[in-house]
Amino acid sequence: MSAVPGWDPERFRTLFPGLAGEGSPDGIVHLASCSQGALSRPVAGALEEFAASARDLGAPWDLWTRRVDLARERFAALIGARAEEVAVVPNASVGAYQVASTIDWTRRPGLTTTVLEFPSIAHVWLAQRPAGAEVGYDDFARSDRSTGLVSVPLVSYRDGARLPAADIARTARRAGARVFVDAYQAVGVLPVDVGELGCDYLVAGALKYLLGVPGIAFLYVRDGVEDECPPRLTGWFGRADPYAFDPRTLDFAPGARRYETGTPAIPAAYAAAAALELVGGLDLAAVEEHVSELVGELHERLAVAGERLMSPPAARVRGPMAALHDPDPERLGAWLAARGIVVAPRGRAVRLSLHYYNTLADVEAVCAAVAEYRARH
């Protein structure tokens, strides 16, 4: 998917009518892309297109499934994969479960993950203990012939830390282990290439930095990966011919589609296809540079103001967010929201995440608001 010339941050921002700025005095400062990206005109238009199709055409399943396939193809192009290597799943947790269900944990029980893993993924791994999995944390260098799976996020949801996923993958695969990468907090603002990562599986959803809506995610399964067990969760979209409607035959589709289950969320697929076209038209190296500069500025200003930051101090290991420590993140988040600044509180931090549509004015706005909050509280 080639980049479209001319998509600088200022022009990109004009596609998001809800953002604060010239011509939108009541707009918001959106610093919560790590939770839900801002709504663009193309995505809003795609949702209206779906509504029109349901209203005017009734139940045009051929049209709707083509939109699902379009979203699949665009996600594959974004991460350097082929469409046949991508399954459409409801969310990242289902993607993780599908992978876990195909591994025989009695053969290689080791499952190495990290405390920086998003809990929903980590919970799937813990749920494999009754099947024989032995879950360990953060000891990636000790992958050996007893390790069945190594799971690592590209960027931690908690503090924005970047993990050396490619290095971890090389170590794991030398020991014969499979590698699962959660790219949810990276795809859309960082260049991601599954070939360079060397992973067997990668999952990401359409909301957050991909700028879609909840209800759809994508699971990359490297060509050549063979299941030790058939997927335990399945449905009619996982069949070789979904329209055969044969309740007596369980034939799995070729490629990654064997991991698919029941009817996908069609409105979310419409939104995802539009959002992926939008993100796929950007120069993601330029996006990364823009976001990194803003995060660095935000990090420095907050540190100078005496704020305690949980995100890494070094820019090279910092993702698209600054994580601000606070004794009551929900309270601070609500106070900022009342002033038109949308952030994402989690745990003991208020996460301030940036995208290509954010500006230095957004950084200045949140820093001033946090200073005011500290003065009042």
Layout of strands and helices, then pairs:
Layout: H1 9-13, E1 29-30, H2 41-57, H3 61-79, E2 86-89, H4 92-101, E3 110-113, H5 119-126, E4 134-137, E5 147-153, H6 165-174, E6 178-182, H7 194-197, E7 201-205, E8 217-221, H8 266-280, H9 284-304, E9 321-325, H10 329-337, E10 341-342, E11 344-346, E12 349-353, H11 360-376
Parallel strand pairs: 1-10, 3-4, 3-5, 5-6, 6-7
Antiparallel strand pairs: 2-8, 7-8, 9-12, 11-12
Helix pairs in contact: 2-8, 3-8, 4-5, 9-11
In short:
This protein has helices at 9-13, 41-57, 61-79, 92-101, 119-126, 165-174, 194-197, 266-280, 284-304, 329-337, 360-376; strands spanning 29-30, 86-89, 110-113, 134-137, 147-153, 178-182, 201-205, 217-221, 321-325, 341-342, 344-346, 349-353. The chain is α/β, with parallel strands linked by helices.
